[in-house]
């Protein structure tokens, strides 16, 4: 595949500043968890689509004492909630402003978090085989090379540990945001497109100001497997609504599911294997 015209370093710098701006203006994806979520953090984490295609739970009944990495998950939501549910939590995010929201919530809630600034494709600050669970909200679209991301995640995940990631569906990113005259959405960008996508109209599907990349299902699912994980479940969160108006988010989701969620288990081998260490507990996660 052709290399992108923009360098990795330029992409990371651009996206860090873009997410700082989103946090500064209180964008929907840069808002801390609501008070009600902290009343039952384990229940809240389990209710946010934490089931796969067979309807089985992806989180253990208890999180107490588990080492959880919340990857690209700043913003005062995932990290604080997992900590409130009893986990030992490390948060890694590219954006200083998003991490500051985690710090604020941790101070207010008297929670312990390890907060680190860094990119999802370079976790060199973390030791091999450190985490029982890796929780990874949507963010692989912000880096040009997802294989590098999955190798890093595999390196820091304990054998038997679980990796739960969510990604923007490639076809959703390839397609137009608005429907054509017939009420259909058109594929305009090839899946092999190496460069950041062109800016799109404001919507729930694209974060304004960010550099985003299309990654094929082969790159996403195959990359997770090649890094040393076994995929145990795959789900497409249902954002459809009956009788949704043409052009709405829910209408488009009935043609192009916007996200794919993956539950994977770290094997004993693969590209991410490190020397030494012992297997961690096998757990089902969100």
List the helices and strands and how they pair.
Blueprint: H1 8-24, H2 35-39, H3 41-47, E1 67-71, H4 78-84, E2 88-93, H5 96-109, E3 113-117, E4 131-136, H6 146-156, E5 157-168, H7 170-174, H8 217-226, E6 229-235, H9 249-255, E7 259-266
Helix pairs in contact: 1-5, 3-4, 6-8
Short description:
The chain has 9 helices and 7 strands; from the N terminus they run H-H-H-E-H-E-H-E-E-H-E-H-H-E-H-E. By secondary structure, the chain is α/β, with parallel strands linked by helices. The chain has one domain: Vaccinia Virus protein VP39 (Rossmann fold), CATH 3.40.50.150.
What is the SS-derived class?
Answer: alpha/beta
Radius of gyration: 18 Å
CATH topology: the name is: Rossmann fold
Q: Helical proportion?
A: 25-40%
| CATH homologous group name | Vaccinia Virus protein VP39
Query: Regarding quaternary structure, how should these chains be classified?
Result: single chain
How is this structure best described in words?
The chain is of the alpha/beta class and 286 residues long. The protein has one domain (8-42, 58-266): 3-Layer(aba) Sandwich (Rossmann fold), CATH 3.40.50.150. 29% of the residues lie in helices and 17% in strands. The protein has helices spanning 8-24, 35-39, 41-47, 78-84, 96-109, 146-156, 170-174, 217-226, 249-255; strands at residues 67-71, 88-93, 113-117, 131-136, 157-168, 229-235, 259-266. Strands 3-2-1-4-5-7-6 form a seven-stranded mixed beta sheet, with helices on both faces. Strand 1 (67-71), helix 4 and strand 2 (88-93) form a beta-alpha-beta unit. Helix 1 packs across helix 5 (96-109) and helix 3 (41-47) packs across helix 4. 42% of the residues are buried.
